[in-house]
Write a structure and sequence with these properties.
Blueprint: E1 4-7, H1 17-26, E2 31-35, H2 36-42, H3 44-54, E3 57-64, H4 72-84, E4 89-92, H5 104-125, E5 128-131, H6 148-158, E6 162-167, H7 168-171, H8 177-186, E7 190-195, H9 219-228, E8 235-237, H10 242-245, H11 249-263
Parallel strand pairs: 1-2, 1-8, 2-3, 3-4, 4-5, 5-6, 6-7, 7-8
Bound molecules: zinc ion.
């Protein structure tokens, strides 16, 4: 299972971070993706000790954001904690438009300035910044970075130490996807590949993601694009779903691993 990672969000409603780490280790995983708010619930020392005792490494750390005018201090503190957990990358989550604001272009420009401001510190402590473009329907309230092209453009302008995460849920619809994945691969900036599925109908934009294989995304097709682009890192299972959150975490993880073995080519 070296090439598969669970994002804790997949089982967070019924498994705290320590339980989640145990479940990953029991399944032979070597790497995990974690959340700062879940560390707070169990305590940083306990979380770090459990990781060390189980021999687990951290792939992605969630997260910096949403960006606020006075949020740089908080963002830097999260960066430092991501470094204490020896995380490979930390996710950036810009947030949407401020209440009453209609200036999307201005908000995007300010978000890029914030990212640029964080990058030097991220480089100095050795944690990569990861832009994860979200679905355009989330521009109003969640992010103002909503395509891989836009994320690639930002990375081109900012240089080393920043990359992209490709989440099929957010990007599967994009006619430029193959081109932009290729472009990200040429720049050696693909930091992660998140999998789940798009259900039809989708009842909730945040909490109704599907298990891989239950929806309409061409998962093997997108995996091939990512692999052809030179990405050799893990496949990260990340499912936000009221339905799956109700089920036994160990059962959810076993089904997800089985689906990955059927669908992907690790
Ligand atoms: Zn994701």
């Amino acid at each position: 299972m070296n090439n598969i990672v669970f994002n804790h969000a997949t089982v967070r409603e019924r498994a705290d971070m320590l339980t989640f780490l145990d479940l990953c280790a029991e399944r032979g995983m070597h790497t995990v993706s974690i959340w700062g708010d879940e560390i707070d619930k169990v305590g940083e020392d306990k979380a770090l000790n459990r990781l060390r005792n189980l021999g687990l490494k951290v792939s992605g750390y969630n997260r910096i954001g949403p960006f606020t005018p006075d949020g740089l201090r908080v963002a830097e503190a999260e960066l430092e904690r991501a470094a204490r957990f020896d995380s490979d990358h930390i996710f950036l989550f810009t947030g949407g438009l401020a209440k009453g604001d209609r200036d999307l272009i201005g908000t995007r420009n300010r978000a890029e300035d914030t990212i640029a401001g964080l990058l030097e510190k991220a480089r100095s402590i050795g944690v990569k910044l990861a832009i994860e473009p979200l679905h355009p329907m989330l521009n109003g309230d969640r992010t103002v970075i909503a395509s891989l092209a836009q994320a690639n453009d930002i990375c081109d302008r900012l240089g080393a130490g920043i990359g992209v995460v490709i989440d099929v849920y957010h990007l599967w619809w994009d006619p430029a996807l193959e081109h932009e994945i290729h472009r990200a691969g040429l720049a050696n900036r693909i930091l992660g590949f998140h999998v789940n599925d798009w259900l039809v109908p989708t009842r909730d934009l945040l909490r109704d993601r599907g298990m891989m294989g239950d929806g309409v995304i061409d998962l093997p097709g997108i995996e091939l694009m990512v692999r052809h682009a030179g990405y050799s890192g893990p496949i990260e299972i990340e499912i936000f779903s009221d339905d799956w959150w109700q089920r036994e975490p160990s059962e959810v993880m076993d089904i997800a691993l089985q689906r990955c073995r059927q669908i992907f080519h690790p």
